[in-house]
Amino acid sequence: MSLLKDIKQKMEMLFVKSGTKKRYKMRILTIILILFLVGCNSIKNIELQNSPAGTYILRSDKLYQALSDNNYSQLELNPDGTFKLFKAEITFSPVVEQCEIASKGKWTVLSNDLLELNSEDKYLKQKGFEYDLKKENKFSQDSLYIQVNFPSDYHPVRLNFHFNNNNSKSVKTDKTFMAIPKSMHLWDRKITTNLIRFSMDADVSGTTLYRGRILFSIFEEYIDTEKYNCLTITLPYFDRCFLEFEPYQELI
Fold first, then answer.
1. Could you tell me which of 100, 212, 198 has the C-alpha nearest to residue 156?
2. Which of 54, 67, 94, 165 is most exposed, with the fewest beta carbons within 10 Å of its own?
3. Distance (Å, rounded) from C-alpha 166 to C-alpha 64?
4. Helix axes 26-36, 3-17, angle to 10 degrees
5. How far is Cα 227 from Cα 203, in angstroms, rounded to an integer?
């Protein structure tokens, strides 16, 4: 039996067995569905090479496929061991903005009936986490001022600032500029250095199925808040594609 047939049988069994599971399993089922519904040309090419490498097409006649739970069009398994999972094309008006690629990473055949997908965030630090921190001293010394700059107006996230590992002193907000009273959140001003941890949570309110990452940890630094009481944090690559990226580490 060819490697392709082994993998297809494994996926078919998983598809049947997973049919009654909860909706949070849908992301696994979606990949299985894409692999199961392949084009004829792809099948021929794969069988000749005895390898799962190829382009797998999700066939759908749904006008609003891009708004469905299966918002995908194709999965590319490249011969170099990388993969790309593409979102469905927008075929209706008004056009909904979305990133073309849902996920990308590496694939590996573990055995005749086991294929592993690992999205790139599992083995490298993506550019979206990169930041520039500008430290200044201005305005009133009673407060710590923080400005967060995004590359566009699209940033449905909540900002989290934790000080000195004390959750009771943390600040959570959706505002990109804030003035934080030092007396309420930092050490006594005789201790000038404070540990500041900055992270963000994706805003998933109103969504029925969310496949992206929830938490984004940006940095943790010791900062002399008496010397520098104004911080400007710039996230040049925190864009839609980074925010919507879907992490996978699945065996299929």
1. 212
2. 94
3. 46
4. 140
5. 34
Closest Cα to residue 172, out of 148, 199, 153? 199
Percent of the chain whose pLDDT exceeds 90: 43
The letter for the amino acid at 92 is: F
DSSP 178-219: EEEEHHHHS--TTS-EEEEEEEEEE--TT-S---S-SEEEEE
Structure tokens at 69: 């739970």
**Angle, to 10 degrees, between the axis of helix 3-17 and the axis of helix 40-49?**
130
Q: pLDDT: is 13 or 49 the higher one?
A: 49
CA 144/CA 66 separation, integer angstroms: 43
Q: How many CB atoms lie within 10 A of CB 248?
A: 23
- Whether the predicted pLDDT of 147 surpasses 80: yes
